[in-house]
Every structure is written in C-alpha cells, then in structure tokens.
Write a structure and sequence with these properties.
The chain is of the alpha+beta class and 354 residues long. It is built from 7 helices and 15 strands. The chain is 15% helix and 22% strand. The radius of gyration is 20 Å and the shape is globular.
C-alpha cells in the first residue's frame, strides 16, 4: 500500500525534473495548472493535495495527447458519480487501488475506461515495517536510486547558492501510476480533481518491509505510454503495472508517524542504521551544495527557469542491494550527519524483522 509520501521540491524544480520529449523529439517541460495550490511537504497524507502528471488533452480539447501538464489534485479519488455534497462522506477508502481488482470496482473501472490515467509525483513514499513479536513499527523512506544526471555543457557548474537555484538539483522524483476523476458538486461549484495510487505486490527488496507497494513507472517510455491515453489503450497500459526492483530505501525517525510533522527530519536516515557515505563521493559534494540553498518552501518566484534544452534526462539503474542516499533537508541536521559519516566506511544493509 501507499499511505504517506514526501514531495518537497519547489514547483519550478519539479517541472524541470519532469522534462520529456514530444512526438517531434523536442525536449519540453510540462506546464503547471493551478500552481498556487501546490504546497511542498515532507509528509503528505490522504486528502491532502499532491502534484500529478497528466495528458494535456484531458484539460484542453484538440491538444496533442503526448503533451503534459502538472496539476495539484486531492489524494483519495472521489468518483464522478458520487451524489453527496461533501466528498469527505465517501464511505470507502480510495487512496489506493489494487491492480488485481481495478476492473471489478466501479470507482476505478470508470475513470480507467475514460483514459483518466495519471502519474503521481513524489520524492518517495513511506512504509512501516512491523517488528516481530512487538507492537512497534519502523518507518522507511523509499525512493528511486539517485544517480548523477546528465547536464548539457551550457548548464555549467553551480558555484554558489545564487547559481545553484538556477539548475536542477539532481533528485529524481518517484513516478507512481495512478487514476484520477473529476467530481462536480451536486449544488454547483468548482470541479474537484482527485486521484488514487495503483498498488501491486511488493518486489523482493521491499517484501520484508510490506507486502504491497505502489506501481512505479520506471523510465520515460513507461511514463509516456501510461499518460498517452489516446494512443495507448487501457489494456496495453495495464501491462506496465508491475513491481520494480529499481528502488532503494533507508529507515527514518518515528517523527514521520504524525502527519502533522512536516520537517526534513521525516526523510533523514536514522543515525544508528544509516549506510555510511564514501568520503569523496559525488553525493556528499552534492549534499553540501544543497545545504547552501534556502528552504524549498521559500521558493524565489523571480528565479529564471533554464531553457528546455538544458533539462537533464534520466537513465535507470538496477541495484542488487540498497545503498542509502541522504535526502536534502535542514542544514543543521544534515551537516552534522555528513560530518559524522565522512570518517566511516560504507556498510551494506537490508531491513530485517526484529
């Protein structure tokens, strides 16, 4: 299952991270719809608003179905046929949709038939491992393995905070398959767009933590096919819904247990269980540059956006083990963590049942 996520990147950075190529091979950025409704957070729960990718054709008649937009939507699908005036009165949980029953439940079968497929964006998601023989649980932060992005020569290096904010900071967002719907209040008013995350059986690497995981679309081809409902049928798109092993994770503090806690501590590795970073690694250097930037919540609206030709493209990497990469967060917490880790060698780790 998936009941908590983190998505803290500023909206301009998130758009650059979602660069894609259109049918002519031109590199493009998705455009934001209602960007003021996006609230970055380290701790998003159902009924909150999160950014999703979808085909522009859903919003604009006559648009090319391969073109994309990013729109904040409510987490927890409210079916278009729901008759109550208050969506919170929906009597069943629609934050997740099991892949094996997607064609059996009207709430999901109808939007799937209408081509209402979307990609839910996040830094990563949280899952809780139950400790054997106790009532205690250990939360984990789960995300794509982070590898160095390719940048064009014109982008150059970011030598200071003022330069670093102009470039993509190399965090690859998690891209989860979802469905969305549009609910119109019976008494009139604005339409409510909401979504559900499709879940599958866990991959081998995560099975010790939880038996379910989001259906993750790994790579541009998978994302493109899932979103392009005009060219790719539902039957073909559903073939993309399967577990992926291209995932990594680390244990985090129980501070994330409370959804009201929205701090960098939610994604920071637990000190006693963290895999040690190699002293001269690019990740350490990148993290130190991150620490020099201001909080993502205080995004500078005047920051110029890089040209589309400068947007990096991602490649996938399959890892047999789970090296833990630090996350961007508060300078005081991460700086202490980095200084401590520089003196030690890396240790491989897997989650284990206590």
């Amino acid at each position: 299952m998936c009941g908590r996520t983190s998505c803290h990147l500023p909206k301009e950075v998130l758009a650059r991270a979602c660069a894609y190529r259109d049918r002519q091979g031109q590199r493009r950025l998705p455009e934001w719809k209602d960007p003021d409704r996006y609230c970055p957070s380290y701790n998003k729960s159902p009924q909150s608003s999160s950014p999703v990718l979808l085909s522009r054709l859903h919003m604009e008649k006559g648009a090319d179905s391969c073109e994309r937009i990013i729109a904040p939507m409510r987490w927890g699908l409210v079916p278009s046929w729901f008759k109550e005036a208050d969506p919170s009165k929906l009597q069943f949980n629609t934050s997740n949709c099991r892949s094996d029953t997607i064609m059996e439940k009207r709430s999901f079968k109808v939007p799937l038939g209408k081509g209402r497929r979307c990609v839910v964006l996040a830094d990563g998601f949280y899952e809780w491992q139950r400790c054997h023989g106790t009532n205690k649980t250990q939360p984990y932060f789960i995300y794509f393995p982070q590898i160095k992005a390719e940048k064009s020569e014109s982008m150059g290096a970011a030598d200071g905070p003022e330069d670093w904010e102009k470039v993509w900071d190399s965090w690859r967002p998690l891209t989860m398959a979802g469905l969305f719907d549009c609910w119109e209040p019976p008494e009139g008013g604005d339409c409510l767009y909401s979504y559900t995350i499709i879940t599958v059986d866990s991959c081998k690497g995560l099975n010790d933590i939880h038996h379910r995981m989001p259906a993750i679309l790994d790579g541009e081809e998978a994302v493109s096919k899932w979103l392009d409902f005009a060219e790719v049928s539902a039957q073909e798109a559903l073939k993309l819904i399967r577990p992926t092993e291209n995932i990594t994770f680390h244990p985090v503090s129980s501070v994330v247990n409370n959804s009201r806690n929205n701090t960098p501590e939610c994604v920071l590795p637990v000190g006693s269980l963290v895999t040690k970073e190699i002293r001269a690694s690019g990740s350490s250097q990148k993290m130190l540059q991150w620490l020099a930037t201001k909080s993502p919540k205080k995004e500078d609206t005047k920051t110029p956006q890089k040209a589309e030709s400068d947007v990096p493209q991602w490649s996938s990497q399959f890892l047999k083990k789970s090296p833990f990469s630090p996350r961007r967060g508060g300078a005081d917490l991460l700086e202490r963590w980095l200084k401590r880790e520089k003196e030690e060698e890396p240790v491989a780790k897997r989650p284990h049942t206590q």
